[in-house]
Every structure is written in structure tokens, then in C-alpha cells.
Description:
Elements (H helix, E strand, L loop, with lengths): L7 H12 L3 H14 L4 E7 L5 E6 L9 H4 L11 H5 L10 H7 L2 E7 L5 E7 L7 E4 L4 E7 L6 H4 L5 H18 L4 E6 L2 E6 L5 H12 L1 H5 L1 E7 L3 E8 L11 E5 L2 E2 L3 H11 L11 E7 L4 E2 L10 E2 L2 H20 L7 H6 L7 H6 L2 H8 L7 H10 L1 E2 L6 H6 L12 E6 L3 E6 L2 E6 H18 L18 H9 L1 H6 L5
Parallel strand pairs: 1-7, 11-13, 16-17
Antiparallel strand pairs: 1-2, 2-6, 3-4, 3-6, 4-5, 7-8, 9-10, 10-13, 11-12, 14-15, 17-18, 18-19
Helix pairs in contact: 1-5, 2-7, 10-11, 15-17
The protein binds adenosine-5'-diphosphate (ADP) and magnesium ion (MG).
Amino acid sequence: xxxxxxxxxxxxxxxxxxxxxxxxxVLKELMENSIDGGARNIWVDIEAGGxxxxxxxxxxxxxxxxxxxxxxxxxxxxKIKTVDDLETVASLGFRGEALASIASVSRLTLTxxxxxxxxxxxxxxxxxxxxxxxxASHPTxxxxxxxxxxxxxxxxxxxxxxxxxxITRIDEVVKRIGLSHPQIGIKLSQAGRIRLNMxxxxxxxxxxKRVADVCGPAFMEQALPIDxxxxxxxxxxxxxxxTFSRSQxxxxxxxxxxxxxxxxxxxxxxxxxxxxVLFHGRHPxxxxxxxxxxxxVDVNVHPTKHEVRFRESREVHSFIxxxxxxxxxxxSAGKVAAPALMQELRTPQPESEQQQNNLPLSYTRRETxxxxxxSDAVRESSQTLFRPVSEMQGMEALESGSSEQVQVxxxxxxxxxxxxIYILAENAEGLILVDMHAAHERVVYxxxxxxxxxxxxxxxxxxxxxxxxxxxxxxxxxxxxIDIFSQLGIYL
Length: 492
Ligand code: ADP
Ligand code: MG
């Protein structure tokens, strides 16, 4: 086969393979353009998981009529001029290929107006780039509408997931951008129905509210603010307490100069900082912003700009690790200040005992160490495990190893209570130290397991339902498994 130069459309479609993976990646590029364009508000509307339609409108600076065809062309950008600019790029975009790529695999309409001038519009249909510009009506700012994504590349369409999954990814993109640019108002709707509405945040309380909106109020309640600075680096944001660890790494947001990144070096530094305080398989939650001189970080290592390369990677690693480690070490000393917003939101009455009992065991124990050690329930289940030492008539039999005459409870005979929380017991094997709360939990758990295998769990409705704050994803999961929950006696 002889060598042919690829026609522009094909070249763009190939480039689109890197940048435009799915509706969420289209949305990311369009929203980043709006941010670079100086938007104070961004409105997003999607249909059918974004496959049928994605509309992004902003109130930014807009594009001059004469620039509109160029904006749709590959390797055309207003953000850099020379290779030196690439070294210090502060905008989110700079490759000049997003619009061209998206246009090559969809039907795209770009409408824009700059301050004090008429609006103009260009329409493309995945065709080669001969773009016609017509008069339109639009306030200052830009709208990009992308319809029928991958209509001309069916192979790519096959890789799309269900509408629900695509929407989940779209939500993720919007939330990520919402976190990194709290000063911008963002509204996401689906066929006109509002899904997310984030008001522009100015004050620190408003910013904290935005973080709580995105990460859930529980995160903000159990997160510590961090703000550390060295000569060249600044790390700020919120880190979840070790007690707020998660089974998935789904609440981890890291931004480098406002750009969301998934970086191995960063991930490693964070993991190490939490190493001593998290169980294996648990993941910390955090929202962190790293700021440094743009010249110190290469953002041009990945087409979707998800990865970065630090010039002084060792320093960055040790700064992140050091900052987080320091903070986390402080938390175990127990003196932690709640963020301003949570102090405002917190209900004035002290937590009820009921609520305290719901806390993970390790946490409750520390809190109640010097207070009432065992509840009646704990005491009751201990009776199946121990006998008081006064009933230890058969100890000789025990010692001789023939336990026929005496019924020896599994953990033997209780000798003493230590520190108000442990029981020292003795059986044929020797001395046993038992954490009573843990033992009680185990007894209850075993009983429930037996009931589950037998005639099912007996449930008792709560007089007042418990309310839990969960993320949308968690709510979806709860809904999905609602039958299992009700078999477990939990009615949602
Ligand atoms: P890049 O963002 O890498 O420059 P794009 O293909 O995403 O490349 O956009 C091309 C150009 O179109 C941008 O450099 C910018 O000048 C212009 N542009 C695109 N979207 C907007 C917008 N929402 N507001 C203002 N200008 C925009
Ligand atoms: Mg761009």
C-alpha cells in the first residue's frame, strides 16, 4: 500500500479516540473551555446519558465571529503561541484539538457572542471542516451543543455503557469541576430536569457548603481542613479522618493547579500518610489542592491531561506525605477543630447515647473509656460466654482436663474486670483477655446468622426512623439491594 496523507476528518476522528471516549469526556472538555473562557456560570443539559445531546452554555468572554471556524479546527488554540508558553500554561486547555475532535464524531453547533457584538453560529456534521458561520442570537458567552455522539463511528458507540452509567460519569465530571472551581455557578440538568445546582461560592462557608454538596455532609463533618505552604508548594483542602475511611477509593479528589489529576506519585504519598491509621483495604477520603509554579509541572503528558509530571517529584512527594502525615498524627491526639460550616450546622443538643452506640466500636470505646463500661445487653451476652468466678466449683475438674462434671462456658470463668472494658477470664487453656464490647457484637452477630439460616431475622420497626446522609451513588446502591436489606430486617 502506498502512503497517503489522512484527510482532516479522519485525522480528527483518530485524535478523537484519545480525547473523546464517552459523553463525560466531551463534557469535561466543553466545561474546561468555558472555564478558560472566563465563565462565571455554566449551564449543562444532557439527554439520554449525553449520547443524544450535550449542551454547555456559559457567560464567558465568547469567541469573535472570525475565530469561530478556527475554534473548530484542529491544532487551533488561543491559549498558547510558542513552545515556551507550553512550559508555563495556566489554562486548562492548550492542545487546540477538543472541539475539532468532538465535531468529527458528532453533530456540533457552536454559538457565541463577545461583549457588545452580535452572536454567530457554526454547525458541523462530522464532515470535513468547511464551516459556515451564520447570524444567531445569544447573550455574551458561548454555547456548544453536541448531538448524536459517535453517529458516524458505530464501533465507538458500542463501547458506551448504559445510560445510567454514562450519567454517573457525567455527574462525576461536573462534581470534580464543581470542587476545583467553587467560584463558578454550575447547573446540570437532564432533559430540563435539574440534577445538580451549585451556586457560586465566595466565602469560606459557601465553599465548604459546595464541598459538602459534592462529597456529602458526612465527609465535611469528619474531615479536617488543611493548608500548608512551603517555599514553592501549597497544599490545601480537606482530609477525612481515619474513622471516615471507605471501602472504595471513590471520595478522592486531587487537583494540581486547578486541574483534576490521577497521579501515581500523589496517590502513593497520600496512601503512605494514612498507612498507619487505616486498615488494609480501606481508602481515605480527601479533597486536596496542590498549587505550584506552572513551570514546575508538565501537564502535556496525556491527551486528556489526567496525568502530570512534576519536575521535582521527590520534593512534591515528601511535601504531600509530610503535610498529611503531620495532620493525621495530630488527630490521634484527639484535638480536632470542626470546620466552620459544620459548627454552624451542628444541632445544639448533645448526641444521644443511641447515636454514640452506632459509632464504630473502636471509636465508642475511646470516648466512653472512663464512663459506663457495659450496657445490659453486653452483660447479658457475656453470660453465655462466662460464669462468674463464684461458680467456679469445678475448677479442679477443669484443671484435670475432664470437663464432664462441669459445664464450662466457652471463655471460662471471669476473674476480673480491667480498665472497665476488658474481662480477664480463665479456662482450661489458660488466661483470656476479652474485649467485652467486641464479644457482645460477635454474640449478636452469631445469633443473627443462625436466625438468618433458620426462620429469618426478626425485625422491629423503629419508632422514629433513622436518617442517614448518603451520596447519590450510595442511595442508588441501597435501592438496588432493597430486597436484601428488607430480608435483613432493615426497611429503607
Ligand atoms: P483548546 O481549549 O485546547 O484551546 P479547543 O478545541 O477546546 O482547544 O478550543 C479551541 C479554541 O476555541 C480555544 O482555544 C478558545 O479560544 C475557543 N473556545 C472554545 N470554547 C470556548 C468558550 N466556551 N469560551 C471562549 N472561547 C472558547
Ligand atoms: Mg479545550
